[in-house]
Give the backbone structure.
Amino acid sequence: METLELDDIQGYIIRGYKHMRHSRYLLLQVTDQVKARAFIGQISPLLTNVTHYAKTSCLNIAFTPLGLSALGLKESNLQNFPREFREGMTTPHRQRLLGDEDTSSPEKWLWGGPRNEEMHILFMIFGAEKGTVMNHYNKFHTQFSQSGLNEIWQMDGQTLPRNKEHFGFRDGISQPIIKGSGKTGPDNDYINAGEFILGYRNEYEVYPDTPLLAEDQGNPSLLAEAHDNSGKKDLGRNGSYMVMRQLQQDVDGYWTFLNEKTKNENGSVNPLESSKLAAKMMGRWPSGAPILKFPDSDPGHVSDDNDFNYAKIDPDGMRCPFGSHLRRTNPRDSFEDNNKGKSLRLTKRHRIIRRARLYGVPYEGSPFHHTPEGEVGLLFSCFNADISRQFEFIQYTWANYPKFKQLYNDPDPIIGVRETAEPGTEQNFTIPSQPVNTYITGLKRFVTVKGGGYFFFPSITAVKFLSTL
């Protein structure tokens, strides 16, 4: 197992800051690169790394390709970043790949889209208390205009005590564990660091592609040499790629649909059956308990149980349907028709470290409680070393594609349903049953993309380097 340079890795990748319940995300635009570089140099010692266990607040930073260019990174060096990062999330190809169509089209986004202001830097403030976040924000806000930075958008996020999201389900349970991070958990969740952090071996036992300096600029002596013995400096080491998407949740539409599909003969709501269908679609009960282990009812107690596989207990999807959100986005030892060992190896090559914060008035949906005040949703983010093989693969191949496992017309019921399906196309959720399967027909889209982007999440050292360009 490789030794991770934890003091050089920004902490949000590994730690998640669960005790920091409040956050503010700021999108900044560089207006004066000299002043902006000076500001970045000044805040680099304040950035939270993995070993820094702050009690009150944390601070991290990420950059778009346009932001790196605006700070002065030469085009030859920018070209060494992967194509999907350089092209961004809103090209026609990626729009089709990710299913960002209709009301989720980038043309209608609040930020990150082609009609929005150009974004360069994502500045993140986390705090145990909202007042702490605001105090830090007020301090930095006064510095931005003096430091060649223009604030173009802000988003506030938070987590609830039981980590519930607005649909009413406990969130963030199924997470990989980076080998060498010091975290512990089920054996199947341990994954090589190179799947998430550049500069370390991945699940293919090779080093992931990393942005090397094609030509020197700034102070390259700050950077480590590349593993390929080329003598070039590695800008990516101890960094990652951060995907961020603002996802609006239609809580009322979600529970109204579930209630309608499970209503009693007299038309009244059947809350037990509605909640059970919701759990089948999600793969977990609202408490977080896996439906694989509790197929009939929610045990009720708060659960973080992630120690299970499917092949032995549920090979036919009778407990946890193949099409459930949980099973699709992490098939574990049930990847297509492969044996258990191969399935686990393949699944580990497509994992992401998922982070999410709620936005809007905190709300916990249920069959009789599903009309939140105003817009609510998730500020979704994830970390991966290969955006194409990890985030994009999960979204397109596992979530959006209707022919998953033994299914034919079943997109992911939570994040894969198309708002306007092609004529003649069905969108169903199949529940394997005896003697015949049960089909929930006419799935609707309950999640709308409101903004998004791909960001380079550099090491502390790389941030210092960028200040010297």
Remarks:
- The chain has a mean pLDDT of 96.
- Residues 130-144 form the longest helix (15 residues).
- The chain has twelve helices and twelve strands.
- The radius of gyration is 22 Å.
